[in-house]
Automatic annotation (TrEMBL):
Residues 103-202 form the Fe2OG dioxygenase domain. The keyword Metal-binding applies. It comes from the Bacteria. The keyword Metal-binding applies. Keywords: Dioxygenase, Iron, Metal-binding, Oxidoreductase, Vitamin C. SMART domains: P4Hc (SM00702). This is 2OG-Fe(II) oxygenase. Its cofactor is L-ascorbate.
Length: 209
């Protein structure tokens, strides 16, 4: 049975027309809470590493661009909370493929912890040398996030970055957007901020040049 708590058809229509969608209470409170507990447990076990930018040879730690720490979910795929999350996200992938013909084949995702003061400056998610990342997913795990705590994702809605929306990283909120189209940033968080960020990938993707 699907764990999704929203109308998938409506989400697909919105993605088709706008290229982005914000879904509050996307998964059940139980799945969300279990995922939060799992994230904190593996964080406390010291399994995270400081995030880098770029990929492969171009990877570098750039603390002036981003200051979060991450743990790829494939490292902790046996955790029941992670399995429940992946199953729900798979349902979304199937629906997106049926509705939008994006040809998505897999989701790669990581837990992210932004310690107090952490941020991620304005960027696009698609790598210069790999265009497989197609649809970005961000799922938040912060119960009762206070507005004064910052940490919103600022999603720019046009190519000139004149128009934007700020979304609070409240537990249960899922944000989806086309990875190559939408600039975005994470405003400085004034308290610890937890999320699962991922990318649905198309097959291939490595550019031939
Ligand atoms: C990212 C990212 C947004 C967020 O990890 O690439 O933009 O709200 N995350 O955590
Ligand atoms: Mn991003």
């Amino acid at each position: 049975m699907s764990q999704l708590q929203f109308d998938l058809d409506h989400v697909i229509d919105t993605l088709a027309s706008e290229g982005w969608v914000v879904i509050p209470h996307a998964l059940s409170a139980a799945i969300t809470a279990n995922l939060r507990t799992a994230c904190l447990e593996v964080w406390q076990q010291g399994l995270f590493h400081e995030a880098a930018t770029g990929r492969a040879d171009g990877q570098a730690r750039r603390a002036e661009i981003r200051s979060d720490s991450v743990l790829w979910l494939d490292q902790v795929a046996a955790l029941p909370a992670v399995q429940a999350y992946n199953a729900a996200m798979d349902d979304i992938m199937q629906a997106v493929n049926r509705g939008l013909y994006l040809g998505l084949v897999e989701l790669e995702s990581h837990f992210a912890v932004y310690p107090e003061g952490a941020f991620y400056k304005k960027h696009l998610d698609r790598f210069q040398d790999d265009d497989a990342r197609t649809l970005t997913t961000v799922f938040y795990l912060n119960e009762a996030w206070p507005q004064q705590a910052g940490g919103q994702i600022r999603l720019y809605l046009d190519a000139d970055c004149r128009e934007f929306i700020d979304v609070e990283p409240e537990a249960g909120t899922l944000v989806l957007f086309l990875s190559d189209r939408f600039w975005h940033e994470v405003l400085p968080a004034r308290q610890q901020r937890l999320s699962v960020t991922g990318w649905y990938r198309r097959r291939g993707g490595n550019m031939p040049w």
